[in-house]
Amino acid sequence: MGIKERKKRYAGKMRSRILKAAMQLYVKGGYENVTMRRIAAKIEYSPGTIYLYFTNKKDIMLQLCYQGFERLLAHQAKLEGIADPLERLSAGGRYYLAFALENPELYELMFATKEIFKESGPDEEAAPLRAFRGFANNVKDCLDAGIFSAVEVETTAIALWATLHGLASLLIKGRLRFLPEESLSQVVEQAYAFSLRKRGE
């Protein structure tokens, strides 16, 4: 292994350590608990070292946020083999809820920490928008197949995502403790059906 490759690998390991320490601090005390000095103390380096790998705290938290969306993207890719567009969409919804329930702090960081995206414009190539586009493509496949009566893809996708986000928030807050885990599939499908019902039905 050459010097350049060793340096690259070391930098990757350092970035991972920094991100892991930042997430631990976030889980313990929220966004305000994460500081460059506290991260440095956790990894036993000087605060100045962290700036060799990240611009600032917001950069670190943004990368953590993107890691969460990359996991959603990876699962979307696994669903591409499902031929039935509605089952593909439902399977994605079930995974989304399971992901939120299993990773509540990360989910909160991804969607409820306004400081991360404050004053930041949309990045078309960033993981959050790519994940949404993947979800919207599944919605489009359902529309093309005549499964849904709605005609505007983006509006329909936002409505369905809002439904999932609301369910995820209820699950995380423990408001659906009475719901058996095996009922999640039915809940997702019923929520989709209700969200897309025609007026007057």
Features of the shown structure:
201 residues, mainly alpha, 71% helix, 0% strand
Describe, in plain words, how this protein is organized in 3D.
This protein is mainly alpha-helical. It has helices at residues 3-29, 36-43, 47-50, 57-79, 85-102, 104-112, 114-117, 127-144, 153-172, 184-195. The mean pLDDT is 86.
SSE layout and pairing:
Elements: H1 3-29, H2 36-43, H3 47-50, H4 57-79, H5 85-102, H6 104-112, H7 114-117, H8 127-144, H9 153-172, H10 184-195
Helix pairs in contact: 1-2, 1-4, 4-5, 4-6, 4-8, 5-6, 5-8, 5-9, 5-10, 8-9, 9-10
Largest sheet: none
- Mean pLDDT over the full residue set: 86
Low-confidence stretches: none
The geometry reads as: elongated
Number of helices: 10
Sequence of secondary-structure elements: HHHHHHHHHH
Number of beta-strand segments? 0
For the terminal residues, how far apart are their CA atoms?
A: 66 Å
Strand content: under 5%
The assigned structural class equals mainly alpha
Helix content: over 70%
Radius of gyration, CA atoms, in whole angstroms:
20 Å
